[in-house]
Amino acid sequence: MGERSRLAEGLRIYRLIAGMWIRSLLTYRTSFVLTAFGNLLVTGLDFVAILLMFAQVDELGGWTLPEVAFLYGLAATAFGVADLVLGSMDVLGARIRDGSFDILLVRPGPVLAQVAADHFALRRLGRIIQGVLVLGWGLLTVDVDWSVPKALLLPVTLISGAAIFSALFVAGAAFQFVAQDAAEAQNAFTYGGNTLLQFPPTVFGRDLVRGATFVLPLAFVNWLPASYVLDRPLPLGLPDQVAFAPPLVSVACCAAAGLAWRAGLRSYRSTGS
Amino acid sequence: MRAGSLRLYAAVAAGGFRRYATYRAATAAGVFTNTVFGLILVYTYLALWDEKPHLGGYDQAQAVTYVWLGQALYSTLAIQGGGAEKELMGRIRTGEIAIDLYRPADLQLWWLASDLGRAVFQMLGRGVVPFVFGALFFPMALPNDVTTWVAFVVAVLLGMVVSFGIRHLAALSMFWLMDDRGVSQTLMVTGIFCSGMTLPLNAFPGAFGDIVRVLPWAAQIQMPADVLMGEAAPLGAYAFQAAWAVALLAAGRLVQSVATRRVVVQGG
């Protein structure tokens, strides 16, 4: 099978399994509405915390509230999309431990698509809605000297950001083949990364920003493009052109995550129980 | 309580401790995650306190101490849930709780003992390392005398009981609700926010701050932190924590007796 048809097959399987979970979910409509709304509230709380901080100060690391809201919206929306599509992958460790992962291997369909769609949780739409709301508010209130490149950069940034976070989720899942119980470690990068990006890069130590740019390229999710849009100097003194690199970086991240996933899958040994 | 039953609950607590101690990789992963989150939060707090020194009566070193203490107590006090209540919820949902009711032991004390065992392990296994990491790399406001440290440990122990009291009540709602997602989510929201994980409660503005500071969640991180940093008199803090602990445990006992008398256990 060619790469292209494998991808199509993966998407088809993903759609089928996710559709099944959605149907089962919608049997309990009230529960769904409540949990989706709850999800919106839960994820909204970290923005409330930021609002509380700004109730005491006018600037954080030299950034104003609308600017931070813009940063937050970009990161939260991108993360929300990745979380909706791949956020259930942390059950992989449990599946490996109890042996039910073997079932996925004998089913006719790419394993990655099956794992990704497993326990597909539509309620995670709440996080995306919340991110979009904050982003919208940020865009309305922030002072931007708009230009065509800036306007084009926005959707590109959101898609690339979602791809970068998705790559993190897949890499985290691959890591679970090695350390099944250590599933929580990936939260440091996924949820931790999301938290990190909600604050301006000027807040953090230089080494942390370096790490989040060159080692784990989280900065491309929002710090770099947002700095460009807001006419701020890019972190670490990087040239303005770097703000347009997110698509390239996201492709590289996805390729690396794909390789990690294949290596992990190949190293899998069933528990035999 | 007779010596025999004391031994029983001690054994249950030891079981809770050992059970969590078994998963070393999970513990290491937790230590790592808490350390990373601590690093992120510490920089945001430093920026905040840089902009507004003495916010909430803390100086920068105290704000830093608060961050690392929060990370150290995060799993200890099961701030976002995931302690014994998770299992209790499962047992109520599946009907296995019927077996627990047959046991010649007090249901509430059994789960309290099990959760305390878990909490003590999480404090030693998951809490100490991030805290020490923070103390090594950031200036902290730590006391030099042993008495304050002892007072702090007592405040943490009381915090554990309050934490259990809240989660136990939430778990008992399963007798009526059957689906734990909404309740677990509520526990998580209130836990993270009202315990002061995102921002110390004394930095909450206005009347909003006055309210969160008297809710039971304030007994979890804020009180031990203030005792450790000498911002609160230990006895006053203990009184606040103990009052909530007693109120929550009494409420839990009441709800439990109503539930076990009136509710039909799930069969199947």
UniProtKB/TrEMBL annotation, chain A:
Protein name, as recorded: Transporter
KW Membrane (keyword) present: yes
Keyword match Hydrolase: no
Keywords in alphabetical order: Membrane, Transmembrane, Transmembrane helix
Spans traversing the lipid bilayer: 32-57, 69-87, 128-146, 152-175, 208-230, 242-261
Pfam families named in the record: ABC2_membrane_6 (PF06182)
InterPro entries: ABC-2_transporter-like
